[in-house]
Amino acid sequence: METTKFADQIRYYTMRELDNLGFGHFGGSLSIVETLAVLYGKVLNVSPERKDDPDRDYFVLSKGHAGPALYATLFLKGYFDEEFLYSLNQNGTKLPSHPDRIKTPGVDMTTGSLGQGISAATGIAKGNQLLGKSNYTYAIVGDGELNEGQCWEAFQFAAHHKLDHLIVLIDDNKKQLDGYTTDICDPFDFVEKMQAFGFNSWRVDGGDVMAIEEAVIQGKQVNGKPTAIVLDTIKGQGVLYFEELVDNHHVRPDEAGKIAIKEAIATLAEKIEVNQ
Amino acid sequence: MKDLEMRQVYTKTILELAQKDQKIVALEADLASSMGTSKLKEQLGKRYINVGIMEAEEMGAAAGLAVTGFIPFIHTFAPFATRRSFDQVFLSLGYAQNHAVIVGTDPGVTAEMNGGTHMPFEDIALMRVIPRNQIYEVSDPYQFKAILEYAHTAQGLFYIRTIRKQAKSLYNGKEDFSKGYCKLKEGTQGTIFSSGIMVEEALQAADDLEKKGISVQVIDLFRIKPMNEDIVIKAAKLGPIVTAENHNVIGGLGSAVAEIVAENHPVKMKRVGVKEQFGQVGKMAYLKEVYGLKAVDISKAMLDLLK
């Protein structure tokens, strides 16, 4: 299982990166690891050697606070070296909390103010449509992020312009900073909503790399409509300590947490066979 | 070009540029009929995008289009281009360093019957705090065309503030607009800096002062940012300065001039503009009166300074 191993590697380096900093967005970074593994391992037509190739695919991390997971992925894809990865949030860094297209190699769009990335993704997809290109634009958007009205503006635009080369992946990890999404502002059924907004939409297990890959392949076969894949995920996915932690959005671990993180890193290291 | 409305200048210029450059896209937010850009749709085809009533998406989609190499020209009314979608303009366009041109129309009292909800006295103030962008308030059709052409070839984020309807022609198209200002009247005792619809009032004020034996120069300071510091410092060395703007005196032309003056050559100044008030419905002449934007307000300010 090549993609599963890639996911383990992304999870390992995401944890190392955040552990090195000492705190950060563990929950929302971990929940998209499998999706990033499928996108960067199987789907996206991108590579560090072809950064300026206009025919390459584009990726927008609209839920920008999951930047650490994207950075781990970009490192593994060869966009920069391991040392650069540990410059996360250091003074003067080129690897800030939220992705920056000017600072970090491999980042296609600057995001972080929630809702804006999805709009930019519609613009990128529209641009490539105008150019008559067949490349795809992928965007990961958070379930909490969908509180933002701008997302729904962007979805209306995408459906109206028949952006069938736009694939939106909704990270439905059921939590946002202040608690469960159903308690704060119930999103109801994302699949029904997205279908009503003119998208092809269905729900898949966001921890199952095969299921995610199949969903993307299915999304690419559709003509005339954008696709929204709702990913059933767990905030803190793949690291039991964070899955069980209630407030797991931005974590500054206590002593027990620090031990749990070290253990998780050691377990992941064994799985991917790296010497620490 | 004398009889052209500013909206016609916009449409005509974008059309000329877009025919030469396939990378130009024009974005509207359901104001095509107000701006007269429907004609662009016929000529630009798919490169004309009316997003509907969604300014945040208009700015965000423009950013994405810029990422794929297009040059977006974005129109909406000035309050929606700035205060409504400020974070999108700031972040997706400004911070992300995308090349885009925003044209905000119906500034200040020129919103007339749309009233206070649509009357931006703060758009320049908001846009001035976005690092490295350029801001223009245009006063003349030739000037508008020249600035649109410049914004097409230059890089970065542009905000151009203009009326939609006919502007009184001040120029003949042979002027050099690259310095960011044009001197419209010579004078020896002081300076009036103004922009947009206030240039006309400034010229009237200078004429009125002349009849009283007072000689002041009038400068159309249409590039608000980066402001030409040399001309401001030169003016400060000449004598007192009055600024006149169809905008809040906080954060606009007057503030920008005052900052340069205070840091380089302190001299007495007065800022004519909107003070601590919201907009309201009314005809232009009435609104200019209410907000103190008439020639008499400018000449009175100068007389006070010269006392």
Automatic annotation (TrEMBL), chain A:
Regions that span the bilayer: none
Cofactor: thiamine diphosphate
Segments forming a coiled coil: none
UniProt keyword Isomerase, yes or no: no
Keyword annotations: Thiamine pyrophosphate
Pfam families (alphabetical): Transketolase_N (PF00456)
Matching InterPro entries: THDP-binding (IPR029061), Transketolase_N (IPR005474)
Domain Transketolase N-terminal span(s) in chain numbering: 4-249
Domain of life of the source: Bacteria
Family that this chain belongs to: Belongs to the transketolase family.
Protein name: Carbohydrate degradation protein
Source organism of the structure: Enterococcus silesiacus
TrEMBL record, chain B:
Swiss-Prot/TrEMBL keywords: Thiamine pyrophosphate
SUPFAM superfamilies, alphabetized: Thiamin diphosphate-binding fold (THDP-binding), TK C-terminal domain-like
Cofactor needs: thiamine diphosphate
Protein name: Transketolase
InterPro entries: PDH/Transketolase, THDP-binding, Transketo_C/PFOR_II, Transketolase-like_Pyr-bd, Transketolase_C
Stated family: Belongs to the transketolase family.
Any Pfam family hit: Transketolase_C
SMART domains listed in its UniProt record: Transket_pyr (SM00861)
Domain Transketolase-like pyrimidine-binding: residue ranges: 4-169
